[in-house]
Design a protein that fits this description.
The structure holds 2 protein chains of 2 kinds. By secondary structure, chain A is an alpha/beta fold. In chain A, 34% of the residues lie in helices and 17% in strands. Chain A has a single domain, classed as Rossmann fold. The longest helix of chain A has 19 residues, at 196-214. The chains are: A alpha/beta, B alpha+beta. Bound molecules: zinc ion. Zinc ion (ZN) binds next to α8 of chain A.
Chain lengths: 268, 82
Amino acid sequence: MSEFTEEQLQKYSRQIILPEVGGKGQKKLLNAKVFIVGAGGLGCPVGYYLTGAGIGRITIIDNDTVELSNLQRQIAHSVKSLGKLKVDSVSETFKNLNPDVNIVGIPQKITKDNIMDLIKNHDIVVDGSDNFPTRYLVNDACVMLKKPLVSGAILKFEGHVTTIIPGQGHCYRCLFEEMPPPGLVPSCQEAGVIGAIPGVIGSLQAIEVIKLILGKGDVLKNTLLIYDALKTTFRKVKIPKNPDCPVCGSNPTITELLDYDAEYCAAH
Amino acid sequence: MEEDIKPDKKISIKGLVCPYTFVKAKLAVEDMKVGQVLEILLDFEEASKSIPKSMEDHGQKVLKVEKVNDTDWIIQIRKEKE
Ligand SMILES: [Zn+2]
């Protein structure tokens, strides 16, 4: 009990008093290492709530800088951080929220050449990226390293969340074996979004991460959660593991990371 | 007369208010073994009601809640589950 400081007891009191957390759960959170891909619309709320919860280490990767058009949804940035690297901006925000948490910002693009080294020393990966090449790269790397992955996506008034536990459930390629051709799926730059939508989806991702760390509750394994903000509905769609999945199936054809940008452009 | 149970552990949470009263009590119970008894001394009236209720909600057994003087209460909890 006395392993917590008085300050920590105060800071985390509202979660320690939950039967599912307690002192034991809080220690798990304090010892957990989470990797977040993207410091944008999803990465900001995910990182914010995980920082508040007292996750031990949060590593966040993004090579972008903060622009004015980001601020309506990327809540960890502010007008003071315009022009700064997003990872520097979020590191400052998260450290101000909770100096206990070790925040590591990596101002790079995540690629097939760095992803394995970057994620291997983390317990859970969160995908908050805004493009398909990165989504497939992160999925394939997590399957190969057997890292749980909490994936989120948003578009217009809709959001998706799913939790991939390699070896136990589906992966992103079981759901969509190949990337959609460019042009078919508009990127965030082409399609609008209400800022609160990534807030909802990022918050759901943060809760999935916390449940994985605590080992409590049911996560979105073999399930895609679809949030329709216009209709105000949440729908769960069962996603069976595909035995012939090219990356997580019994005879995988993808056994090393690909050139995802090239795959994406070659698709059409 | 109820029989006196000798606690395995005693804590004082005098001076503390909600929710730290329950945080301290809960962490103390977590560190004990099933079957052991915790005695809590407190002076925050609301907690003399809320701690027993929350302990029961969490599956522990409340053995005693007693006002011992003008300002203080004693609560005894037996740990029933992890
Ligand atoms: Zn798969």
